[in-house]
Amino acid sequence: MQNDEWRMRVYLTRFMTTEILPTDLPQEFKSAVDAAVRLLAAGEVVALPTETVYGLAADALNAEAVAKIFEAKERPTFDPLIVHLPHKKDLDTVAEVPETIAPVVKKLVERFWPGPLTIVLPKKACVPDLVTAGQPTVAVRASKDLVFTRVIRTFGKPLAAPSANRFGSISPTSANAVKAELDGVIPLILDGGACHFGLESTIIKIEPAAPKPLITILRPGPITPDDLKVFGRVQLVNKKSRNAPEVPGQLESHYAPRTPLRILDRPSDFIPEAGKKYALLSYRGEIADGYLDRHEWSAVHVLSPGKGKAPEAAVRFFFALRQLDNSGVDEIIAEPIPERGIGIAIMDRLRRAAVVK
Ligand code: TXA
Ligand code: MG
């Protein structure tokens, strides 16, 4: 593309009006879905709710449409996208399932799809290289969100959809959060309310091994190691290999607020600097945990008041992070969360949010 032409394109995409359409009433639902499908069919991008986070969707098999996702998110093209399927039976339209792992893939798909599990498999030729960042594999899932499902089934083809935020920023779990991220650069957001899980899907790859297949978790998420262990030997990808080409998007710094964030393992580690304002991201909001009373916090968000439940904390996590980021403090202090179940995924996101860029 010529330079001028490119500049004009950016200018045009930057100044569009971003509409939010509700989906609560049957009539609203239908017209919102129709509007989304019309745009997708015209090669445009649309933000849609999923059960994990909001996604920015485009026709996965149309490279020009997919290019608009990268443009809107300002996402580097080395970071591949997840392909969403209309139905789980459509898996072989975009991916090859090697015979050596076919039985375990079948079981995982039967158990977890539609749902928050993404499987990395060899790609079929119809998937544009832009989607997979030139890699021979494609990451695939099927969402169970009602609005997303209706849109993709009416559209009738796979949709590429990364989280609907600017690259590296906090993932959106509501239509308003998408608007805060991408206002003026995308035409439409369907409002399906708050996301059910609040954290991105678990991403796995599978290798044949005896006596059980090896399941490597490339990104922890709502489907936990415990959920997966009946299907094979489960390992979490180690920190060092996170920046390897195999997991290009799992960069060390990600999901990051603009405000610096620090995880404090012990409340006594907190030594405030004079004149600085601090916010607290608390897990249970209990005085006994030692953080709440430690300081006159300028803002506090409690992820799961009382006993502390990791799934509840997950739902609130990105919302709370976004609120604290907008609270005008100099630093966000975060309490660690027990690394069990979905708590593993919350701590993964928190650590990446805390990395100094
Ligand atoms: O829950 C989700 O997965 C959400 C919703 C919208 O579906 N999507 C999402 O997409 O989180 P995104 O683009 O924000 O994160 C996708 C991650 C990236 O870290 C990317 O590097 C990784 O998936 N990925 C994509 N294709 C891959 C592949 N072939 N091999 C390894 N990792 C891949
Ligand atoms: Mg993302």
Radius of gyration: 20 Å
SS-derived structural category: alpha/beta
Anisotropy-based shape: globular
Counting DSSP H or I runs of 4 or more residues, the number of helices is 11
Strand content: 15-25%
Bound molecules: threonylcarbamoyladenylate, magnesium ion
What would you note in describing this structure?
The protein is an alpha/beta fold and 357 residues long. The protein has 11 helices and 15 strands. The protein has helices at residues 3-14, 26-41, 63-73, 91-94, 102-112, 129-132, 146-155, 175-182, 225-228, 310-325, 343-354, and strands at 19-22, 46-48, 55-59, 82-84, 117-122, 137-141, 159-160, 188-191, 202-207, 214-219, 233-236, 261-263, 278-282, 299-302, 331-334. The strands form 3 sheets. A 9-stranded mixed β-sheet has the order 2-3-7-4-6-5-9-10-11, sandwiched between helices. Strands 12-15-13-14 form a 4-stranded parallel β-sheet. It has a two-stranded parallel sheet with strand order 1-8. A hairpin with a 6-residue loop joins strand 2 (46-48) and strand 3. Helix 2 (26-41) crosses helix 7 (146-155). The two termini are 32 Å apart. The structure holds threonylcarbamoyladenylate and magnesium ion. Magnesium ion binds next to loops. The site of threonylcarbamoyladenylate has 27 residues, from strand 5 and strand 6.
Distinctive features:
357 residues, binds magnesium ion, binds threonylcarbamoyladenylate
